[in-house]
Amino acid sequence: MRFGLSYHHQLPRPWAADSEERMFNEALEQIELADRIGLDYAWATEHHFLEEYSHSGAPEVILAAASQRTKNIRLGHGIVQLPGAVNPPARVAERISTLDLISGGRVEFGTGQGSSQLELGAFNVERTTKREHWREALDIVVRMMTEEPFTGHKGEFFDIPPRNVVPKPKQKDHPPLWLACSARDTIENAARLGLGALSFSFSSPDQAKEHVDTYYSLISSEECRPAGRTVNPNFAVVVPFMCHEDQETALDRGLEGAHFFAYSLMHYFVFGQHKPGQTDVWQQFQATKEMLGFTREIAAPDDTPKAPGAEQMLEQITSLRRGIGTPEQIIDLLRQYEAAGVDQVIFSVQIGKNKHEHIMESLELFAREVLPHFTEGRDEREAEKAARLEVPIKEALGRVEVTTNDASDFVIDNELAIISQGS
Length: 423
Known about the structure:
By secondary structure, this protein is α/β, with parallel strands linked by helices.
């Protein structure tokens, strides 16, 4: 099993003049430490306009900075929003390839559709067609990274002429592809398309096992028709994280951050009403957290009626402390995920008002007391997995129908523009 860090770049109010600057630099220090102690991945999400919940509007900049401060850790987009109004396909292909080159081939390319109305509405993306939009865009980006030249595309959402999109990525045919998954149908979709599954729903080990079994059953079946030129058979889960020798101290340092992460997620994606630049999400959280069940003691929320979908989110409240505890407790949790077949556990650390120094101490303790239990024999287990999937993956890639247009006679007549300057 592999381990990573996930960054939404949360920044609860109130803000000081240097709050965002400090937050980004602290994240880079944490990633640098993660690289040094042997963690495998650093993931940066992409969100826009989601004040306090996520100030991660330019993850490519953070990952590029991290690439120059690290040597081994994989740098993951978790995820790039692919609707064309947010990120045109050519710009995505250019950025991913450039990052792959300057990092020495360490990029993981996670993708998604975008979700919150606050984001999609600002870019005029229709919610009813966002999945189809994502699927068409993903095919285009893959082709732009692998075709020389890209032979053009004419579809429902995009009409792009032939161009040679440069640069090309270091990893061939392209960096590993992932899909953000929060429900069973998206996990199944990831498997059918040969994509790694980034499960962001705080699944318990039992839930994870059910999803993993479904995922690998589909990825090994005739239903798998890869979206890329390679298959990325990996299933990852995300959990809030804080580690300390004393359980109560771990809870003191990490539980409220985990609770705020869940609350702010619900604010933007489930029940919140938001006034840009005015709503104080942290203040609302402090005022309502006990009523909603965000307490130190495990307790059910009150019976106040909730918006559709809120109950499902609230069921996860008690699970938020799962990755917060002593090294022994975290080892036990990770053993359960390992037994469930999870390939990677991603820790959310910079959440709520978690302190930078506590995160750094927690990572160092994890490296000393927890990580060694999962590195011995890992290479052999991964080799066994690769051998087991070799034939299904080969058969899946044989079902890929690579279609390109004939661009051999396509010529662009560049006009010579003469600019006259007046006296």
